[in-house]
Structure formats: C-alpha cells, structure tokens
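Last lecture ended with a question: if I hand you only a sequence, what can you say about the shape of the protein? Today we answer it with a concrete record. The protein is Acyl-CoA dehydrogenase. Below, first the input exactly as provided, then the predicted structure, then a couple of comments.
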Amino acid sequence: MTSFDPTADYSAIRDGVAKVCAGFPGAYWRDLDARRAYPKEFVDALIREGYLAAMIPENYGGSGLNLTASAAILEEIHSQGCNAAACHAQMYTMGTVLRHGNEAQKERYLPRIADGTLRLQAFGVTEPTSGTDTLALKTTARREGDEYVINGQKIWTSRVEHSDLMVLLARTTPRDQVGSKTEGLSVFLVDLRDKVGDGIEIRPIRTMINHATTEVFFDNLRIPADSLIGEEGKGFRYILSGMNSERILIAAECIGDAKWFLKTGAAYARERVVFGDPIGANQGIQFPLARAHAHMMAAEAIVYRAAAMYDAGHNPGVEANTAKMLAADASWEAAEACMQTHGGFAFAEEYDVERKFREARLYQVAPISTNLILCYIAEQVLGLPKSYGPGRG
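The predicted structure:
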C-alpha cells in the first residue's frame, strides 16, 4: 500500500529546509521570545539557501517554484519547531508584484529581493477603525505631479521594522466618488529605507507572542508616482489575489505546527512513565492525539488542493479560506492535545510547548478570523443572506 503525500515531489526541498532548521533549536527561539527579538540569523539562513526567493522567477534570480512548493517550505519550517512568521510575507506579497507589477518594477526589485539585498516583509492593509472591512480604510494617497502624498495609519503591520519595502493599500479616490465600492483603492510598493522619521513613524505593539508587529503612521509621506503597482483604483482586486495565497501559505504553517505538536506529544507519551506504565498506553492520552492527527490529515488535503488550484491559475477563494480555517483548527486541536499530554511540564519553557501553543492560537483570528470565514462560506457557497455590513446588503 502506498501513502498519499501531496508534496512528495518536494521531498528534497523539505530535507533542505529541515537541515537549515536544525541549526536553530528550541533554545534559539526561547531566547528570542524572552527578548522579543527578530530572528535575523534564521531569516539570513533561509535567504542564503534561496528559500525566500522560491516564487521569484529564475530570470530574476529566484527559484521559479510554485505555491505548492512554497507551502511545503513553510510547513516544514513549522514542523521542525521553528517559526516562519518573521519572513513568510515575502512569499505571499510577492504575488502582487509578480502578477500586477510592470517590467521596470520587476527588474528593479526582484533580483535584489532574491539575493537578499532587499527585504519585502511588510504588508500594510489593516487599519484601527476598519479591521477586516478593508473597503472602509481611510489611509489616502493623493497624486501631486510625479509623487503621491500618503496620510493615514495602519495597524498589525508586522516586520516593518525589519523590511526595506512595503506593499501598501491606500485610497486614491474618495469612497463617495466611485461607481463600485471595490474601486478607488490602489496598491503601492513603498521603499521604507529613508522614510522612517520622514513621513513614517513606527510604533511596536507588544503582544503575547514574539511577532514583531507594529502601528505605522503616515504623515505627508511622499513617494514616487512609479511606486504604483498596476492600475490606479484597482488595488482591492490585486490584494484579494494576494490574500488567497497568504491564506494557503499560512494554512500550510498550521499543518506544520500540528505535526510538531503531534510528534512532540506522542514522544512524551511514549517516554513518560506514571504508575509503572507509559502514559501513552492510556486511551485518555491516545484518543485526543489520534483524533487531532485525523483532523490534521483532512486539513492537509484541502490545503494542498487549494495550492494546486492556485498554481493552475484559478482564484480559489473558497478553498483558500476553508484551508486556513480547517488547518488553524487542526493546529489548535493538536496544541491542546500536546499540552494536556505534557500536563504541568507543558508550562515549562524548556519544553517549547507553551511557546508553540501561544503561536498556534494566533491563527484563529489572523490573518482572518474563523468567524469571517464562516460568514464567507455561508454567503458565497450556501447562498445565505449576508450577516454583516451596512444593511447587510
């Protein structure tokens, strides 16, 4: 009997990623967590081995791999006990430049992103007053000659302190002056290197996990007009395409987390002896781990189905959102089972369970909450009335 492996073609990539991760054991991540420090050495190692340039075409210095291969890379990072949150944005923001950027922008930026000279890690979309309601964002970009002048605020903009470039969504036409509510938003590729303190202010947000997230304030920030990606006013459509890849890739990370929790929990259950027997001999320990494994397998299948559809040129909104929800649920269930298996030792930092437990919880609410995904499926798939928004219309 053969086993099903949706990423079997990428076993060599997985092996390579695992070798990189072996150089960054739990002690490395615990130290970063305590100091709230950015994993620069880990990110540099991934760049050196070419993994963060996976989706950049070969003619721009990248590997020219597809989304499925990129998902396998991120899954493997998490299954090894590491965390790709410090660098995963480079993969899913890349699609905006690749699909909608012009040739001059690609030639200018992609080779330098591929070789690590530039980092594209920041994605400025969410705002304090709009949250998931992206169409209600208030950050504006006003055209003045050969420049755009940007004013507004973003929140939960992760890694911006460690990035050279930011993909930014801003309103270029007032909402009451557009024919369709999805028009009037534009996407920009902002060079941050000489703008912090000159139109940009960054304020870190301390959170329950080491996620390097911030608030970003724009005060008459001036950027060249050629920073615009694609057509002015069509940015919302561009961002939606990028969000599908984001959800698929983060879902793959969740699968990796689930595998780490299951591997770690099962190993402890085999080794921990209480009342003369391994605790893993008890069905009360076995069943939660086994059930979590079954749910992980089901979620894994939809994650790579969504990735395959994306690679085939489809726009798998339903599949991408479903994959993210089910994978996040699977990782959280596995985290709970692992935590319970370890008992009191789960709370000890040296076991890494509590750190990974905190990290896994994030994906119930980010990059989109489970409840919003359920609303989306109810409306888009089941044809049910819209349950949110003005007049629910």
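Comments.
1. Residues 235-271 form the longest helix (37 residues).
2. Residues 120-233 form a domain with the Butyryl-CoA Dehydrogenase, subunit A; domain 2 fold (CATH 2.40.110.10).
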